[in-house]
């Protein structure tokens, strides 16, 4: 990383964390600037501070990262003139990003196979198993399950991640398009599209015969390459560049679409994803991005 000048360092934490003023001041001192509290933050349940005029380099980022983790603070270095209006699209992963669960793990729980499937899911999200292989293995374990289990997962277990609705309302009001692109399943993305008024969705289709899952998916698998291609396709459709996209994800299969974006957001993400993202949100909700952009 070359030195970048005139950056803002934005610090934020859920109000219930009650971060000490001494911790904030110590991090501001690391950054070499004066800290101000942002009183008109767009997220009502977060405390937000800004250190302006920061010169960013690798050593500073590493020291701030360590200090913020210890203080349970989220941080972001962002160009001082960066605005939400600079962007045209928000693209989101679904499982463990827009929503709190991994749908396939919860479907497997209906088969009594959650531990086996969750282990494969975790390995895939850490980048230890190739995604196509991991999905094929996991879906095969669901063979014979009554398709009604999908509705039960949606009704009983699916919850939106903190800040998701606030974030989406704000970006939609600002005129940005929304894309939900998932290595999960159309059963859930279709319902999210209708519920949240999303513009685009793309996911895998589970094969169902005689009301039961066959253990296969229909058509191609939405893997890392397909996620990237989908972001590129939607950007073309709306007349935008990928650098005008904000892309959010948590797993290794999100890295390729995050890599072409103008702002990549690692939400409650695996270490391999946090290390490569523009922004990490470990403590505040998805609407934490609103505090980063004027």
Automatic annotation (TrEMBL):
List the pathway annotation.
Answer: Amino-acid biosynthesis; L-serine biosynthesis; L-serine from 3-phospho-D-glycerate: step 3/3
Q: Where is the signal peptide?
A: none
Q: Name one GO cellular component term.
A: cytoplasm
Reaction(s) catalysed by this chain, per the record, are:
O-phospho-D-serine + H2O = D-serine + phosphate; O-phospho-L-serine + H2O = L-serine + phosphate
| First-tier enzyme category under EC | hydrolase
Has UniProt tagged this entry with the keyword Amino-acid biosynthesis? yes
Q: Which cofactor does it need?
A: Mg(2+)
Which InterPro entries does this UniProt record tie to the protein?
A: HAD-like_SerB (IPR050582), HAD-like_sf (IPR036412), HAD_sf (IPR023214), PSP (IPR004469)
Q: Name one GO biological process term.
A: L-serine biosynthetic process
Where does the record place the catalytic residues? 93 (nucleophile), 95 (proton donor)
Q: Which Gene3D superfamilies match?
A: 3.30.70.2020, HAD superfamily/HAD-like, Phosphoserine phosphatase, domain 2
Please verify whether the record's keywords include Translocase: no
* One of the record's GO molecular function terms: L-phosphoserine phosphatase activity
Q: Where are the transmembrane segments?
A: none
Q: Which UniProt keywords apply?
A: Amino-acid biosynthesis, Hydrolase, Magnesium, Metal-binding, Serine biosynthesis
EC no. given is 3.1.3.3
Q: Which family does it belong to?
A: Belongs to the HAD-like hydrolase superfamily. SerB family.
Instruction: State the protein's name.
Output: Phosphoserine phosphatase
From which organism does this entry originate?
Answer: Herbaspirillum seropedicae (strain SmR1)
Lineage of producing organism? Bacteria, Pseudomonadati, Pseudomonadota, Betaproteobacteria, Burkholderiales
